[in-house]
Design brief:
Elements lengths: L1 H62 L18 H17 L5 H8 L2 H16 L6 H22 L5 H10 L5 H10 L6 H18 L1
Length: 212
């Protein structure tokens, strides 16, 4: 009579063991699934960041043409320069491509900070061209470029920063007299760097030297 009881107890122990194994397997699968999900999330974030850098590289590539442009214009141009048109076309094309797969928040992330980058590139280009003549119509051309970039970026991200206004005010300083430039600098010492202010003065003197 004792053996059947022993056998029944052994069967119960086997059931508990199987159940424990199943729970252990389920836990392992859950952990593996979580790890895979984490890797895919990291990959997605890396891809999104790579897209953002790619868009920034387009800005550097196209706006580099400003350093070779001629701004000793004698007539006012009603259109932005070709490199600005091409950059705007590139950015619009990228937006059209990615908005099919990314939500609005992620699209905004890809294009975020471009306004500051564009303005920074253009402002920092002036020291490279300040030795050449930049006429009033040349300044108007640069500000028209800024307007075109701002309008296009606004259409993409539905907003744009005040840095475009800052950049326009910077280039418009070229048309001021040295006295007015000095007064502006005294009233706004932190608005632009010393190098940027010096480039304005250099551009003004290049214009006046050409007029003499």
């Amino acid at each position: 009579g004792g053996e059947p009881e022993k056998g029944g107890g052994g069967g119960g122990g086997g059931g508990t063991s199987t159940e424990s194994k199943l729970k252990g397997t389920a836990g392992m699968v859950e952990r593996k699934t979580y790890q895979v999900a984490q890797r895919f999330q990291q990959l997605a974030e890396r891809c999104l960041f790579t897209l953002r850098v790619e868009v920034q590289m387009h800005c550097f590539f196209h706006l580099a043409a400003m350093a070779k442009a001629d701004y000793a214009l004698k007539d006012e141009s009603l259109q932005p320069e070709a490199f600005v048109v091409e950059l705007n076309k590139d950015l619009t094309g990228i937006e059209d491509a990615i908005c099919k797969y990314l939500d609005e928040e992620k699209v905004r992330y890809v294009f975020s900070g471009l306004d500051q980058l564009m303005c920074s590139i253009m402002i920092r280009t002036l020291p490279l061209i300040a030795h050449r003549r930049i006429t009033r119509d040349g300044v108007l051309q640069i500000t028209r470029n800024l307007y075109a970039l701002q309008q296009n970026l606004t259409n993409i991200v539905k907003s744009s920063g005040s840095c475009f206004d800052r950049a326009r005010s910077y280039f418009e300083l070229i048309n001021m007299s040295l006295e007015d430039q000095e007064q502006f600098r005294h009233e706004n010492p932190k608005k632009f760097s010393q190098t940027e202010y010096e480039a304005i003065t250099k551009a003004y003197r290049a214009n006046n030297a050409a007029d003499m």
